[in-house]
Amino acid sequence: RKVATVSPTGRRQRGFTLIEVLVAFGILSLTLVALLQVFSQGLRSVDVSERHLIATMLMRSILDHLGTQIPIVAGERSGDIDDGYRWTTRIALSQTIAPVTIGQWPYLPYEIEVEIAWKGGPVTTLTTLRIAAELVASSTGNDSEEGPADEDSN
């Protein structure tokens, strides 16, 4: 509501009341607070997405090392990675696929699960199936020989 007043020169002046100005500032401040919350939520979402992407890349890297730097043996292993990530692998003989012998080498199917967790974040999991040649004792019975290269079913 505009209020008309008469100035000392005799002209009418128009303006806003103090209440109208305060209400306008209140509406402006509420709008700015809402916008800041939207932007901060967007930044948090970007951070979480980046953490999930890094976790997925780390899990793929661990899966790539299975059979080369990490032996495929039934059991559970875990370790820490930079930036607060913690990984766990669970390797178990498959309950749904039977082992197969080709030539002299028995091939065992393993179900492999890799989990990555980080502080303040959820656990991210990748699961795969690997076919690996079983270690077979040599003719002397003292040494172990590894069979053919492991195969990945992915």
Highlighted features:
154 residues, alpha+beta, 6-stranded antiparallel beta sheet, two-stranded antiparallel ribbon, rod-shaped
Largest sheet: 6 strands, antiparallel
Helical region count?
1
Overall mean pLDDT stands at 81
Instruction: Sum up the overall morphology in one term.
Output: rod-shaped
Q: In angstroms, what separates the terminal alpha carbons?
A: 72 Å
Give the helix proportion (percent range).
25-40%
Task: Describe the protein in words.
The chain is an alpha+beta fold. The chain has one helix at residues 18-65, and strands spanning 2-6, 12-16, 75-81, 85-93, 100-102, 105-118, 124-133, 136-137, 144-145, 151-152. The strands form 3 sheets. Strands 3, 4, 5, 6, 7 and 10 form a 6-stranded antiparallel beta sheet that branches. Strands 1-2 form a two-stranded antiparallel ribbon. It has a two-stranded antiparallel ribbon with strand order 8-9. Strand 1 (2-6) and strand 2 (12-16) form a beta hairpin.
